[in-house]
Design a protein that fits this description.
CATH architecture: 3-Layer(aba) Sandwich
Radius of gyration: 16 Å
Number of domains: 1
Order of helices and strands: HHHHEEEEHHEH
Strand order of the largest sheet: 1-2-3-4-5
Strand content: 5-15%
Structural class: alpha+beta
Length: 190
């Protein structure tokens, strides 16, 4: 049993409580295709969430994007322009997993071992894109646990609590955005 086995069991249980039916899980082929398209490997825990819980459709607020498939997916929302021109505001290796609305996204930094969860909040940012990035949780596991326990900043009670932890600026944003401009998805590897 790994450290994430129990977490995944609890996530699946909560997801089934909240949804009449979950989408099928992503296949190994889906995972391989997604990684090929974005140019980096998903964090191991994120890959397991998609392979063992469901291909999106559960989680906080508006629920996780499907990894791959029709319509809006994590892969289709990954901010890359044509390969020669990566987006000026989306860091390489940061996969969007949830749309908070109003242009805001939750995203997982797949290039870091703990897979921190970030928030992209572009509202009121003119062109200093690093200022739009915040760290929501130090790891995907911590973020998922905050959903399970109802302690995420997006929860009604947590929003009303003046002591609740809020996302803080992501200090690596500028460097990671600059690095993303010099690497095309097909050339990116981890």
């Amino acid at each position: 049993m790994t450290e994430h086995d129990e977490l995944l069991r609890r996530i699946r249980s909560r997801a089934l409580e909240e949804a009449d039916e979950l989408p099928p899980v992503a296949s190994e082929q889906d995972l391989a295709e997604a990684e090929k398209q974005v140019g980096f490997a998903l964090s191991p825990l994120l890959a397991r969430v998609y392979r063992e819980v469901a291909n999106g459709g559960f989680g906080p607020e508006y629920t996780l994007f499907p990894l791959i498939g029709e319509g809006r997916t994590a892969v289709s929302e990954y901010r890359t322009e044509p390969p020669a021109e990566p987006s000026p505001h989306w860091p390489r290796g940061v996969l969007p997993i949830l749309d908070w609305g109003c242009g805001m996204y939750a995203a997982v930094d797949c290039l870091q071992p703990a897979a921190p969860v970030l928030v992209f909040e572009p509202n009121s940012i003119e062109d200093n894109w690093p200022d739009a990035w915040f760290q929501d949780a130090p790891s995907l596991a911590a973020w998922l646990n905050s959903w399970l326990h109802g302690t995420g900043w997006w929860e009604g009670e947590a929003m009303a609590d003046s002591d609740a932890a809020e996302p803080r600026p992501w200090p690596q944003a500028a460097a990671r955005i600059a690095a993303g401009r010099s690497v095309t998805p097909s050339a990116a590897t981890t």
